[in-house]
Design brief:
The chain is an alpha/beta fold. It has helices at about 50-65, 110-115, 125, 135-145, 150-155, 165-170, 185-190, 205-210, 250-255, 315-325, 335-340, 380-405, 420-430, 445-455, 460-470, 485-495, and strands at about 5-10, 15-20, 25-35, 45, 75-80, 85-90, 100, 160, 180-185, 220, 230, 240-250, 265-270, 275-280, 290-295, 305-310, 350, 370, 410-415, 435-440, 470-475.
C-alpha cells in the first residue's frame, strides 16, 4: 500500500518536488531555480520549457533521495504561481510566447481601457477582482493581440491557455498525447474570467476581452476523486500515479496550514506576500481593497471562499538587494545585515516594483526610498526591506478587519521568509498579535499533497490533516508600540510618495 504523496510546487522563482508521509512530514525535497526574464521595464517573463525541464529534474531527484518508486506514491498534487499566463500549441507542445508572470505590468493600457466603462471595479461583482495587471485575462488578451497568428490558432482550437498548474498537469498526464487540459477553481478564479458563484467561465467577460472559450481549460475541484489523469510510465515519475490535487499557491498554503474554519487566516511570505482569511461558503465582497476568491473545493462539497490581501513584493525585495544591488551574497544574509543597525535610521522603502497591490491597486505606482540621509548604511537598506514586508502585511490585516469584523488573535505564517526571526518579531510588533510558525514551514507544498491525498482516501478528512499541524515557534508583540504606531504612520506617508508615478 502506498505510504507517501508527492507535491509539485511550481513557484515564481523555482520549482520544487516534495514527498510527504501520512503525518504530513516531508521525507524528501528537491528544488531548482529558473531564469527571471525582464524584456522591458515592468515586464516579467518565464520560459515554460525551462520550467518543465526543471520540474522533471526535481521529481527525479526527490524520488531518488527518498529511495522511492511510483508504486510508493498514492497521488500527486500540484500547486503553482497563480496568474502567470501561458498559451501553447496542443499539437506540438510549443508555447507561442514566454509565460507572462503575475508581476508583469504590460496590460496596464488594456485594464485602463476596460475600466473606462464602469471603473476599476467593473467586474468585481462577478469575479471578486478589480481590473488590474495582476490577473490572467488581460494577459491572454495581450497575447492574442500581439503574437502573430495566435488568434487564428486559438479560433481553430490549436492554441490553449493555462496558468502554470494547467501546463504542468498537461505535461504530466501525456502532453500532446492526450494530456488533461484542466485547472481548479482557485486558479480559474485568478483569470478574471470565472464567475465566483457557480465557478464556471463567464461568457460575457470572454466576449468583452475577445477570448475564445475553446482556449480555456476545464474547471475541476481542487481535490478531485474523479482524477485529472495519471502520470506516465515513461514520464518523470516512471510509473502510473493519480494526479488529482490542484491549488493556487496561496490557497494551497491555507490548506497546508489547516485553516478549515471560518475566521482562520494565514500569511505566506514568498516572492510576494499573501494573507487569506477563510469566510466559509459565504462570498464576502470586499469594500477595502481585498480580493474575494475561492479558497478550495474538495470533491462534491460546496466551494469554500476567502478574502485575500495580495502584496506583490516581499521576498523579491531581498532578491533585488542580492541580484541587482549586490548588497548581500545570499538571501539568508539579509537578516545578519539588518541586525547591524538598531532601527531603519528614518528610511522607508516602498517596493512598488510592479505597482501597488492590496489594498491600493495602483498599477501606476513605482518603488520609492524616502527619508535617506548620510547616516544611512547597507544595514539600513536591509532593515527597511524587511520592515516593508511587515508594514504591507499590517495594511492588509487592517483591511481584513474592516471587511470581516474578525479581530485576529494570532497569525499563522509560512513560506521562505519565516526563517528570518528578526522579520517575524517585527511582524508581531507591527501587528500587535502573536505570530506562529508551524513545524512544516513549506505549507504550500503540503497543501497540494493534502488535496491530492484526500481525493484518493490517503487522508480520510480534514480532521486527520489538522492532527498533523504543530507549532514550531511563536513570537509575541513587544510592549513598545513604536513599530505599531509611529513607524507604521511614517510608512503610510511613504506609500503616498509612490502614487501616480507612471504617466
Amino acid at each position: 500500500m502506498p505510504k507517501y504523496v508527492a507535491a509539485i510546487d511550481q513557484g515564481t522563482t523555482s520549482s520544487r518536488c516534495m514527498i510527504f508521509n501520512h503525518a504530513g512530514e516531508p521525507v524528501s525535497s528537491s528544488q531548482l531555480e529558473h531564469e527571471q526574464i525582464y524584456p522591458k521595464p515592468g515586464w516579467v517573463e518565464h520560459d515554460a520549457i525551462e520550467i518543465w525541464s526543471r520540474t522533471k529534474e526535481v521529481i527525479h531527484d526527490a524520488m531518488e533521495k527518498a529511495g522511492l518508486v511510483a508504486a510508493d506514491l498514492a497521488a500527486v498534487g500540484i500547486t503553482n504561481q497563480r496568474e502567470t499566463t501561458l498559451v501553447w500549441n496542443k499539437k506540438t507542445g510549443q508555447p507561442y510566447h514566454n509565460a507572462i508572470v503575475w508581476q508583469d505590468t504590460r496590460t496596464d493600457t488594456i485594464c485602463n481601457e476596460l475600466a473606462v466603462d464602469g471603473g476599476q471595479d467593473r467586474l468585481r461583482a462577478q469575479t471578486g477582482l478589480p481590473l488590474a495587471t495582476y490577473f490572467s485575462g488581460p494577459k491572454i488578451k495581450w497575447l492574442l493581440d500581439n503574437v502573430d497568428g495566435l488568434r487564428a490558432a486559438a479560433e481553430r482550437g490549436d492554441a490553449i491557455f493555462g496558468n502554470m498548474d494547467s501546463w504542468i498537469i498537461w505535461k504530466l498526464t501525456g502532453g500532446i498525447n492526450g494530456g488533461a487540459h484542466v485547472t481548479d477553481v482557485t486558479n480559474a478564479s485568478r483569470t478574471m474570467l470565472m464567475n465566483l458563484e457557480g465557478t464556471e467561465w463567464n461568457e460575457e467577460i470572454l466576449e468583452l476581452m475577445s477570448i475564445p472559450k475553446k482556449m480555456l481549460p476545464q474547471i475541476r475541484p481542487s481535490s478531485d476523486p474523479e482524477l485529472y489523469g495519471y502520470t506516465l510510465e515513461n514520464g518523470p515519475f516512471a510509473g502510473k500515479i493519480p494526479v488529482c490535487g490542484d491549488l493556487g499557491d496561496q490557497q494551497a498554503a491555507t490548506v497546508g496550514q489547516t485553516c478549515f474554519d471560518v475566521g482562520e487566516a494565514k500569511n505566506t511570505y514568498g516572492t510576494g506576500c499573501f494573507m487569506l482569511l477563510n469566510t466559509g461558503t459565504e462570498i464576502v465582497h470586499s469594500k477595502n481593497g481585498l480580493l474575494t476568491t475561492p479558497c478550495y473545493k474538495f470533491g462534491n462539497q460546496p466551494t469554500v471562499y476567502a478574502l485575500e490581501g495580495s502584496i506583490a513584493i516581499a521576498g523579491a525585495a531581498v532578491q533585488w538587494l542580492r541580484d541587482q544591488m549586490r548588497l548581500i551574497n545570499t538571501a539568508a544574509d539579509v537578516e545578519n545585515l539588518a541586525r547591524m543597525v538598531e532601527d531603519n535610521g528614518g528610511m522607508y522603502f516602498v517596493p512598488a516594483f510592479s505597482g501597488l497591490f492590496a489594498p491600493y491597486w495602483k498599477s501606476d505606482a513605482r518603488g520609492a526610498i524616502v527619508g535617506m540621509t548620510r547616516y544611512i548604511t547597507r544595514g539600513h537598506f536591509a532593515r527597511a526591506a524587511l520592515e516593508a514586508v511587515a508594514y504591507q502585511t499590517r495594511e492588509v490585516l487592517d483591511a481584513m478587519k474592516a471587511d470581516s469584523g474578525v479581530k485576529l488573535q494570532a497569525l499563522k505564517v509560512d513560506g521562505g521568509m519565516v526563517g528570518n526571526e528578526l522579520l517575524m518579531q517585527y511582524q508581531s510588533d507591527v501587528l500587535g498579535v502573536a505570530v506562529t510558525r508551524p513545524k512544516v514551514a513549506e505549507s504550500t507544498a503540503l497543501g497540494a499533497a493534502y488535496a491530492a491525498g484526500l481525493a484518493v482516501g490517503f487522508w480520510k478528512n480534514t480532521d486527520e490533516m489538522r492532527k498533523n499541524w504543530g507549532v514550531d515557534k511563536t513570537w509575541e508583540p513587544s510592549a513598545d508600540d513604536t513599530a505599531r504606531v509611529k513607524n507604521f504612520g511614517m510608512w503610510k506617508k511613504a506609500v503616498t510618495r509612490t502614487f501616480d508615478w507612471v504617466e
